[in-house]
Structures are given as C-alpha cells and as structure tokens.
Amino acid sequence: MKKITVKDILSKKSGGEKIAMVTAYDAIFARLADAAGADMILVGDSVGNTVLGFENTVPVTVDMMLHHAGAVARANTGALVVADLPFATAALPVAELVQLCARFMREAGVQAVKIEGGAKIAGKVAALTEAGIPVVGHIGLQPQQVFKLGGYRSFGKTEEETASLVEDAKALEEAGTFCIVLEAVKHGVAREITTSLRRAASIGIGSGPGCDGQVLVLTDILGLSAAAPKFAKRYVDGAKILGGALSAYVSEVKGGIFPPKES
Ligand code: KIV
Fold it and tell me: Does domain 6-236 fall into CATH 3.20.20.60?
C-alpha cells in the first residue's frame, strides 16, 4: 500500500482538505489508526503519561521513543508516521541532532520527526530539512516545558504572545517544516496562523476548528486516559467496555466457567 507522503500533506493544505492525525504507541493501535484512514500517526512523547505511567513527558528517553516508534512503523501500512523528539534533544548541537533524527528514520522506520520549539530552533530545523528529514513543528503549549511553565496553560492570550506565535510559525515554515502543531492556542490566533501559512499545514490540538487538521491523543479518544483535557472528545468509553471484558474473564476463571468443562 502506498504511504501518505509529505507532498500529499502539502497538497491537502493547498486543496483545503482537512488532515487527521492521531497518536499511537504500539503495533495494536497503529494498525487500528492506519485502518481508520488517519493521514498521520504521531508516536508522541505523550507515551510517557498515557502508557508508561509517568506524570509528564520529561522522563521519556530517546531509547523509549525508538522502541515505540519502531512498533508503530512496523504495523503501519498507509499513514505517514511521525516520531516525537524527546525532552531537551532540541538543545543538541546540530550535527548530533541530525544523526539522532536519522536514527528515528533508519532504525525505527518513521517518515518524519516532530520537535517542540519556535523561531529559536528554526536554524536547526532548516539543517534537518536540508539533510532530507521531514520535520513537524510544535508551538503554543509545549508540554516538555512543564517545569519552566509551572503547569499547562493556553497560549495567545496577549498581543505580545500572539505576535511571538505568528513569528514562530513563520520561522518554522521558512525553515522547511511541512506541518506545525498548534497546541492550546487561542482559536482566533490559531486561525490567523493557519491563514498566514502559505505551504505548511497547521495541526491543532485544543486550538479550535480553524486549523488545517487536528491531532488528538489516542487514549483520550478511546476513553482510556486517567484524565483527559476538556477540549478532547471521547468517542468510546474504552475503560468501561474493555474493563468489563476483563472483569468477565476474571470472574469466569474464578467461577470455573472458563475454560468450559470437557465432556
Ligand atoms: O506527544 C504528543 O502526543 C503530542 C501531541 C499532544 C501533539 O505532542
């Protein structure tokens, strides 16, 4: 099956076709997201708080990300798989950063990387794209900055913050990113950024309907998150349905119902 390419995503942006991205962290859910027709699967470092039991994304390492990204890429057939670069990797010297991203493409088999940060890292993003590494930007709320921010909040509330978001998006687009994730950005500001982007697609999360596409965290969609953000939509109460199946299994084993008696 032909995989969605960077060119396809750019065409969707220019043709006004909405783009659907979802996170996945293993082969089981990558297969489901792929079969559902997701354009892009993001192996987010949200694996830390959704799957690995950490409080936030900061403890997630390169090795963890390679492990999960590999599982997703092996199961996927049609989507464009993007791996998140974990905490503080954007601060690596540019040559090291290029080699790290090359590992994600070579060893894990992903087609692109995502990096948190704006205008300040645009030079590094340009070096990555020049090396042939497709890059997704990520501005607004950057969860890896949780300790600096003292928590999670929305962005674009002041004129100054809005101007700096617009500047970040422009610098990332000029550096060659093909998508920019806008997280927790005020809806009007996200719309303004989306209109200002000539080539790159904006992918919103908690940033309203004015973006070129949307991304949601898998466990929020499936009702498997301990606590989901208010903007997320739960499409199924997975904890109830899957928990019910597990309870039925446990009680059947304890009650001698499963496996059935042999005659
Ligand atoms: O790690 C992640 O899942 C993300 C999304 C929230 C965009 O960065």
Answer: yes
